[in-house]
Queue: 2 jobs
Job 1
Amino acid sequence: MKTRLYSPEDYATICEWWKGHKIGCVPAALLPKCGVLVEDEGELICAAWIYMDNSVGVAWMSWLTTKPKLTVKRCAKALEILMGAIEVLCNEFDYGILFTMTDQHGLGKWFERNGFSPNHSGMTQYFKPVKNHGT
């Protein structure tokens, strides 16, 4: 498995993954430029994006998704590779804190086993466009 950066040409594939997980597609205009993908033998299998604050060293990992119907073992390995690449990016840009959110118990436990600490629970994410920017 190896990582590479997201390209807009990847959007259709990843949107199909979100649909396969029965969640809506994130509008392309909401995705930051810093997206990390995992490939296994040339096949995309995992993706996440990083929003990096411009005033403090905090980064938010968002929109984490995998190709539907991956085995648990393959998914766990992809997440491990993905997190390693994201941590390298955060370190390169001097971001000392990475945070994320999930409502999936198993993924939350995976995060905890991999150095994340829980903070808030029972939250829902809300979005409001404040400027017409293709959203």
Note: Helices lie at 11-20, 72-92, 105-113.
Job 2
Amino acid sequence: MAPSMGEHEIQQRIRLACGHGPVRLWRNNSGALIDQQGRLVRFGLGKGSSDLIGLRSVVVSPEMVGQRLAQFVALEIKTARGVVSPEQRAFLQLVDQLGGVAAVCRSIEAAQQALAPDPWPPGEQGNRAVDGGKD
């Protein structure tokens, strides 16, 4: 990917390239604003939640062979020099510890690796940047 590409562009390309078949990805806008009545309105999953969230269909085995389950997905999108905040790291660690897919992605290839079937055993992903980039 071009080094000058911004986080939003990387995110859009990953969402379009990887959000099909057994995977669905959605943009998770997080933040707050003051509405027309002057009330504070918070949106998104919360501070530190990942840029792209979604579900990945998995088949559980051996006793549940053939049944499909949806596995929670959290992809934090960063540029080559982007830094993961402590809140983002904590969110990714929680998703990983609870058996979801959690990764820092700086390219489509990194997202594809993270979303591949069983890229690493649960709890061993360790919230690392799957493309070898700075996290």
Note: Residues 7-18 form the longest helix (12 residues).
